[in-house]
Amino acid sequence: MVSSTALTTKVTSGSPYQLDKSQVSRASSALLRHIKTKQEEKEKTSTKKTLIGDNDSDDEDTPLHNEAVWLVLTTKKHVVDKNRLKPGKIPIPHSLNASPSLSICLITADPQRSVKNIVADPSFPQHLTSRIDKVIGFSKLKDRYKSFESRRQLLSEHDVFLADDRIIMRLVNTLGKIFYKSSKRPIPVRIAEIEKVDGKKVKKDPKSKNKDDDSAFATPAIVAKEIEKALNCAPVHLAPATTAAIRVGSSKFTAEQLAENVDAVVKGLTEKYITKGWRNIKAVHIKGANTMAMPIWLASELWVEDADVVEEDAEEAKAIEGSKKRKQSGNDEEKLIEAAPKKTKKVKPAADDEEALSLAARKEKLQKQKAEALEDGEAAPAKAVGAGKKKRKSTS
Question: Is residue 81, in this structure, part of any structural domain at all?
Fold first, then answer.
């Protein structure tokens, strides 16, 4: 029996580095119930009244009825490999872009006319042609969308942005933070022609690359297949950090659909994007756009490799413990000594010492003068004293 206070449960058989399907299912159903309850409360308290269209089908695609669900994955070590940080995608069983009214913007390498001809080709699927509203080349994108307002308008006009994987890394500076702070980051698509020899891809030397290489596009069938694959994937954009968020569903999904997408995304992340796979994963959560994160898997250790853990011998542990006790007792004695009241000696000022020395010197001089006067008998005691006073004044 699992206690009610347990955040996650581990699998009873096999490797502990796997998701517990029952835990994912429970968390998914609980999260979706919570999101739908919040949506109903917002609808009741909303003061916005419309004259027509309250029950239109278009309202189902608004953020209020179609809130995104995110998978939040936390790693033990930073993901720093540049190949893993490159934008990618993971196939999921339930698409995030299944709406027939989806608006797609396709950003391609130059020249854009070649891609427009591919999309307009009769062999290109009609259900994709109707959803691709804009095809724009990289050079025209830089020239037309320089201002912040123009980029924001472009972002609001389309639902999904697909980009040629040859220029995907150059779009960061071109599109700017208005795109990369949103959930509409461009998804990479392979639409270039690939040379194959005996069924194997031929790698090109980057030093011998010509400008004509960018103008080589695949056939309409291959381009359509790649676009379909991108629309049925979860986009992955990792940062050099320990936390990554990937959209895996929406509030319109069922608990089973959301759980299946979570399982597919976690599997794809551990196999391709996360260094050391499961051993580098610290926690996995799911959350809505405005909800708390619900844990579905937590690591039982914080290290990646077993070699990172140093085990102490029994004798070494005792020696360290004994040294700690001796150090602690020594510190206690020092504290007691410091706390005991100290006797302070009164220090005379320096001026008093100088006066005492000068008086002693004067007395010695007077005694010598008196002794000499008595021996010689030249003067009376009174005169000797007076002379002594005069001499003392003169010496002073």
Answer: yes
pTM value is 0.68
CATH number at residue 155: 3.40.50.790
Confidence class for position 3, pLDDT limits 50, 70, 90: very low
Residue 65 structure tokens: 């009825």
Contact (Cβ atoms closer than 8 angstroms) between residue 191 and residue 217: yes
Q: Is the pLDDT of residue 367 over 70?
A: yes
List pLDDT tens digits, range 155-170.
Answer: 999 999 999 999 999 9
User: Is the Cβ–Cβ distance between 231 and 19 less than 8 Å?
Assistant: no
Say how many domains are in the chain.
2
* Mean pLDDT confidence for 184-210: 69
102 and 224 both lie in a single domain:
yes
Residue 112 makes CB contacts below 8 A (sequence gap 6+) with 135, 136, 137, 140
Work out the burial of residue 74: count CB atoms within 10 Å of its CB; fewer than 13 is exposed, 13-18 middle, 19 or more buried. middle
Instruction: Using pLDDT thresholds of 50, 70 and 90, give the confidence band for residue 12.
Output: low
Q: Which positions ≥6 away from 228 have C-beta within 8 Å? A: 125, 128
SS (HEC) of 97-156: CCCCCCCEEEEECCCHHHHHHHHCCCCCCHHHHCCEEEEEEHHHHHHHCCCHHHHHHHHH
Mean pLDDT of the chain: 78
Name, in order, each residue with C-beta under 8 angstroms of 340's C-beta and a sequence gap of 6 or more: none
Closest CA to 8 of 254, 282, 291: 282
